Amino acid sequence: MLSVMSAPQGPTFRELVVQALSSVEHGYDLLAPKFDHTAYRTPAAVLDSVTGALRGLGPFDRGLDVCCGTGAGMGALRQVCRERITGVDFSAGMLAVARARTPEVPGAPHPDWVRADARALPFGPVFDLAVSFGAFGHFLPRERPGLFAQVHSVLRPGGRFAFPIVAPARPGSRPYWSLLAFDTAMRLRNALWWPRFVMYYRTFRLAEVREELIRTGFEVELRALEELGRRADGSPRCRLVVATRPV
Question: Which residues form the Methyltransferase domain (predicted)?
Answer without folding.
Answer: 64-159
